[in-house]
Structure prediction request, 296 residues.
Amino acid sequence: MASRPTSRIPKITPLDAVILTALAGVIGYVLFKAATGLNYHWKWEVIPQFILRYDEGTGNWRAGLLTEGLITTLRLSVWATGMAIIIGTVVGLFRVSPSLFKRQVATTYVGLIRNTPPLVLIFIFYFFIGDQIMTALDVDGFVRSLSEETKSFLAVFFGPMNRFPQFLSALITLTLFEGAYIAEIVRAGIESIEAGQWEASTALGMRRGQSMRYVILPQAMQRMLPALAGQFISIIKDSAIVSVISIEELTFQAQQIMTTTYRSFEVWTTVLVMYFILTFFCSLLVRKLELALQRN
Prediction:
């Protein structure tokens, strides 16, 4: 009879206790020096209005600028992850294709993205490719042709529709950037499957495409899932870079608030905590996913 997996309670060793105590002491010392040693007058009372504010016109509580930026970061990250997985899967399949042309195309794309500074890529994609694509597709005209009801519905998924062209440009930029890294995850996942699986599917009369679809990819996807989930966390952090092209995500909103309030430490400390809470929560979900896959 197979034994059921039991949850293990982590044990804290004396060395762990010493390290945790030392770490707590360092953090406490840094906080003490920040509170007493810096020639800086803290004003934390200015921050809550940027988290949640009361709208006297409507009589309702509304999200503050930082919360709106966090929501935009989430929208951008979710859409970019979905689109980057599609592009990364296609490029990853090209990377292991027997066709030399496909391999060269995929290698060029991955090499170009991974060996170029992200900030340079952001400017190139946004000002050259993104701008040309938005003009060619007449995205502004498409947004103007929508009814107010449709705009309100789409705003739930894409944010304010008057900023949709900018949001779409940032999304394309981030997707192309992250697609290269996901392509490598897909390639590594496929190549991790044992050669015997290819031989067994071939012995059953399957062609290469059928073997990939029915035998290799299902197994590779299971191995790729933790890495793909971890890449989602990276996309959340990488999305901060699109603040340089005026996308109103969390980092951009923090810059705007800092400019108007001159409360640099309070604003950036708050943003740090918001990013940490978001990514730490995602990390816990990724860990649970890994444990679930191990049990299966």
User: Anything to note?
Assistant: The chain has twelve helices and two strands. The two ends are 17 Å apart (CA to CA). The first strand starts at residue 52 and ends at 55.
